[in-house]
Amino acid sequence: MPRGYSRERTSVHNLHYHFVWCPKYRKPVLTDEVADRLQQLVEAKADEFDLTILRLAIQPDHVHLFITGNPRRTRVVRSRAVSSATSVG
């Protein structure tokens, strides 16, 4: 089997998801302590949902998250889990 594929009992998969999100009006607020806390929250949610973070890039005005995980969880669940855990209401 080619490298990078995960094998389950009834399936073979190699799914990667790339999410990008930004603060309201794309204000550059993701710096210093805020960026550190955001990274902690994203890593905690990834552990909770059994996701592997391949790359997390936090810029002052946006975030890139590249993850992989088991396809049993849908893309919507993944994006909601990460974005709701890191949003400020």
From TrEMBL:
One of its GO terms (molecular function) is transposase activity. SUPFAM superfamilies: Transposase IS200-like. It holds the Pfam family Y1_Tnp. Residues 12-88 form the Transposase IS200-like domain. InterPro entries: Transposase_17 (IPR002686), Transposase_17_sf (IPR036515). GO terms for biological process: DNA transposition. This is IS200-type transposase (TCE31).
